[in-house]
Design a protein that fits this description.
- The protein has 397 residues and is mainly beta.
- The protein has 3 domains: 23-162; 166-249, Immunoglobulin-like, CATH 2.60.40; 252-397, sav2460 like domains (Lipoxygenase-1, Sandwich).
- Helix content is 6%, strand content 45%.
- The protein is built from 2 helices and 30 strands.
- It has helices at 2-22, 113-116, and strands spanning 26-31, 41-49, 52-57, 69-72, 79-84, 91-98, 120-125, 130-135, 144-151, 154-156, 160-162, 167-174, 185-190, 196-201, 207-211, 215-222, 229-235, 242-248, 255-260, 268-275, 281-284, 291-292, 295-296, 298-300, 309-313, 321-327, 345-350, 353-359, 368-374, 380-387.
- Strand 29 (368-374) and strand 30 form a beta hairpin.
Length: 397
């Protein structure tokens, strides 16, 4: 009996020690058909934490530097798996790449290898008790794709395919109509030296792509009839693609405010409050398109990632205007970092040029970002306040 009791005590001790190993927030599993995969597929997690970024490769049995992500060894060569212990306050991009294929020598068939391998990504979300599946559509060409992201404990499903790693891609859009902008000029300069490293034009889909080495760059966009704009970006040590949508504003003398963001959250809303010319105040957002002097200030509302959301103050009245961004899709996630991690950017145009650019503060929690105000002297004053609010009509509380 004593031996039996001792056995059960040892067993309970071992199980108690194993429980922490079994407890995790997310599990990411990537599967593919080995026979159909020429080259070698690899799952890669791009992990942002504690002010740094690192990559965790599925082919290596090496955890993240903080031990939060481990590679779970699988018996099949056509699968790789990751365990994420804690997801709160962290950003994890999920990538799958054909790592043995050199894009400079790849044929048309080579770009279809990932699609032919019928790659599937399964995300098990233990925090919210949900499961997700992302499947690469047939005949989708490319050598690397992003299969969503885990943002502060929530998974956002989307799929972005790229022709190669170490590529910067931009799609230019008309800020007022949302239409793609072909034939726009793009010049990329190395920020430290000012050297021009690439130049070209957007294609018929408003797209421009350029392979770049590690470093910091500035892209300048110009097109006849539009205000010149710039984007500062960095190709980091992970050598993974950098992509964005950028909205160019048609030339305007008065204030135009343009909001763009990344693939998550799905829906950010622009809000503006200010004086009516006839007296009183207004609050404009997607569901409150008040006419001011016969004009609708909200030029464009976007509900499906990236933006742009555009508000134009056609004839400023005397008084103060305040502009804010609301994470509508995540409005009920109190204390979340979704908006802070969204890559949201607000460009303010006036007098035919870009006056100021605001980038959402990192590491700040809240579903509302009160960005700036325009005072009675038409000066733009940064605010950068963040707080929670689930109801659109109470964003300016």
């Amino acid at each position: 009996m004593k031996r039996a009791n001792l056995f059960f005590k040892v067993l309970l001790f071992c199980l108690a020690g194993a429980i922490p190993l079994l407890a995790y927030d997310f599990k990411v599993t990537v599967l593919w058909d080995e026979l159909a995969m020429e080259g070698e597929a690899e799952a890669i997690l791009q992990y942002y934490h504690d002010g740094q970024v690192e990559i965790i490769r599925g082919s290596l049995n090496k955890p993240s530097s903080d031990g939060n992500i481990i590679v779970n060894r699988t018996s099949s060569g056509g699968s790789q798996e990751f365990i994420i212990t804690k997801a709160a306050g962290r950003l994890v991009n999920i990538w799958v790449a054909n790592i043995l294929m050199d894009e400079d020598f790849a044929t048309k068939d080579d770009f279809l290898m990932l699609a032919n391998a019928q790659i599937k990504v399964f995300v098990e979300d233990n925090l919210n008790h949900r499961s997700y599946k992302v499947a690469l559509p047939p005949k989708t060409p490319g050598l690397i794709f992003r299969a969503g992201a885990i943002v502060d404990g929530a998974y956002f499903d989307f799929l972005e395919m790229f022709q190669q790693q170490r590529i910067y891609t931009v799609t230019l859009i008309n800020a007022t109509t949302g239409k793609l902008l072909p034939n726009a000029n793009v010049i990329i300069k190395e920020r430290r030296t000012g050297e021009t490293v690439a130049m070209g034009m957007t294609d018929e889909d408003g797209y421009f792509g350029q392979k770049l080495d590690y470093g910091k760059y500035t892209a300048t966009f110009t097109r006849e009839g539009f205000i010149k704009a710039q984007h500062n970006f960095q190709m980091d040590i992970t050598e993974l693609p950098v992509s964005m949508n950028f909205a160019l504003s048609p030339i305007i003398k008065k204030f135009r405010i343009v909001l763009t963001w990344g693939p998550f959250p799905r829906d950010l809303d622009a809000h503006l409050t200010g004086p009516k010319p006839e007296g009183g105040t207004f609050h404009i957002w997607w569901n409150q398109k008040t006419l001011i002097s016969g004009k609708n200030f909200l030029d464009r509302d976007d509900t499906d990632q990236y933006g742009p959301e555009t508000i134009t103050i056609y004839k400023p009245a005397q008084g103060e205007y305040t502009y804010a961004v609301h994470d509508y899709s995540g409005r009920n996630r109190r204390g979340a970092l979704d908006l802070s991690m969204s890559s949201a950017r607000v460009d303010v145009y006036a007098e035919g040029r870009l006056q100021q650019t605001f980038v959402v503060p990192s590491g700040r929690r809240g579903s509302v970002w009160k960005v700036f105000k325009i005072d009675s002297n038409q000066r733009i004053i940064p605010l950068h306040q963040m707080y929670d609010e689930s109801v659109s009509s109470r964003v300016f509380h």
